[in-house]
Amino acid sequence: MAKNALPEKTEYRIKRYWFYAFVTLFAVGIPFVTIDGAHFFLFSFESKSLHLFFNTFSMQELYLMPFLLIMLFVGIFGITVFGGRIFCGWACPQTIFRVIYRDLIETKLLGLRKRIKNKQQEPDMSKMGNKIKKVVAILLWAVLAYIASADFLWFFVAPENYFAYLSNISEHTVLFGFQASIMLFLMYDVIKLKEDFCVYVCPYSRIQSVLYDDDTIMAIYDETRGGKIYNEHKEQIVFKQKDLSEQNECTACNACVTVCPTHIDIRKGLQLECINCLECVDACTDVQGKLGAPSLVEWSSIKETEKKAGKTHYLRPKIIGYMVILVGLMVALVIVGSKKEFMLLNITKESRPYKIEMRDSTKIVSNTYEFLFENTQGDAHEFYFEIIAPEGITIARPTTPLKIAAGEKEKVAVILQTDKMLVDTEEKTTSIEVTLHAFAVDAKETILIERKAIFFFPDSVTYNSVK
Ligand code: SF4
Ligand code: SF4
Predict the structure, then answer these.
(1) Does 8 score more than 60 pLDDT?
(2) Which residues contact 250 (CB under 8 A, 6 or more apart)?
(3) Does residue 1 register a pLDDT over 70?
(4) Which of 34, 49, 403, 456 has the maximum number of C-beta atoms within 10 A of its C-beta?
(5) Tens of pLDDT, residues 268-311
(6) Atom 4 (ligand 1): residue with closest C-alpha?
(7) Ligand 2, atom 6: nearest CA belongs to which residue?
(8) What's the pTM value of the predicted model, to 2 decimals?
(9) How far is CA 149 from CA 101, 173, 190, 398, 454, in A?
(10) How far does residue 299's CA lie from ligand 2's centre (Å)?
């Protein structure tokens, strides 16, 4: 853009605030949304189930987890190749918490800090007024840390159960003890550790640099316009505007430095500490805007801003590759998920193969099994089963359906019997496959599964010797 033509104001900060509001509302609201008793995401240790996209899966159906984990990693790698640490600056809870505490509570509400644009100037804590404000800030954050820790738990303990347990904390000391530790950590993290968490603790900053390429978009200082501020040994060589030549546009005002939450100087080049929040872009847009020039710090790529090698290539083969893998994984997840069974049944045969007895001068062969029913639904149902094939095998026990609460399992002894010789024991065939349908009595159309069991017969000698 030509000098003296007023550049468009970027205001990434406002866009970020809106995005933070959206992420926060989603994170706090989504645990309360249920469809037929199923949550969007709930990994419940209590009911040993995973709720995913409003479907309930029992722990025995956790074959979906590898898909989710691979999708998570591929997604993170893809986003990093595309936009560097864009997640850190725009959606990470740590960044959102720090903005709430430092910029909203300490700066806007209490005036403990002077300006959002100067994050490096710490409040003067020798003043009594500031000490009181600090205590108020800590108390306000404690309330929010409590809500944040509860929100975290709601992805592992359904909110309806969490609130029920609140009335009886002494019986749920592990749960509330865990919440207290999360809350204390959030207080230490946000008030004391601050952005050191992003710089020294978070492992993401370590892996990101190996994923970058020349088209990765990030905050970049345009050295050709602004001038060289650091030498090749990363030592600062320019401190004042007069240290720069006349054609260099950087005013050495340090607005891009003081605004940086991780306390780095973007003019030094790509640094692990940069969380891509774009505060420095906004700051320089203000400074250079007053001079009728575009920002010297841009949300751009090395190719475009540093190497001047043409426009950023957003849809490049690497990005398309990540998108293809993600779509493939999603399709696989939908296919595997659609094979989900809406109840579970494990059949175990008793070690004794069969029992044979005379009843009213009829020989009856019976086999005993243990059926383990599992209700993976969000509400209670009555479960029973029927023999589909072969004809002649009947259910001797149980004679009535089993009522099973939501997410619970129930074992039942099952006896199948027949008064017909359904196998050819002369041909040494002494077993037959039984097909059965197990179902919820009140929802047979949807909650129905098919299972196979083996029914054993005596050989002809044993059969004929029974009188
Ligand atoms: S250098 Fe800029 S984009 Fe990076 S963390 Fe600092 S202010 Fe944010
Ligand atoms: S805000 Fe812009 S003009 Fe000011 S020091 Fe940073 S790069 Fe230079």
Answers:
(1) no
(2) 226, 227, 229, 238, 241, 244, 267, 296
(3) no
(4) 49
(5) 998 888 999 999 999 999 999 999 999 999 999 999 998 888 99
(6) 274
(7) 256
(8) 0.76
(9) 15, 15, 13, 47, 51
(10) 14
Does domain 344-465 fall under CATH 3.30.870.10? My reply is no
Distance from the alpha carbon of residue 182 to the mean position of ligand 1, in angstroms? 28
Tell me which residue of 38, 109, 123 sits closest to 342, measured CA to CA. Answer: 38
Domain ranges of the chain: 1-32+63-340, 344-465
Over 80: is that where the pLDDT of 340 sits?
no
Model pLDDT, residue 348: 95
Residue 277 near ligand 1, beta carbon < 6 Å: yes
Q: Is 214 left (phi over 0), alpha (psi -120 to 50) or beta?
A: alpha
| pLDDT tens-digit map of 138-147 | 999 999 999 9
Separation in Å, CA 313 to CA 1, 187, 278, 297, 302 = 21, 42, 20, 19, 11
Q: Could you tell me if the CB of 157 is within 6 A of ligand 2? A: no
Is 336 within 8 Å of 63 (Cβ atoms)? yes
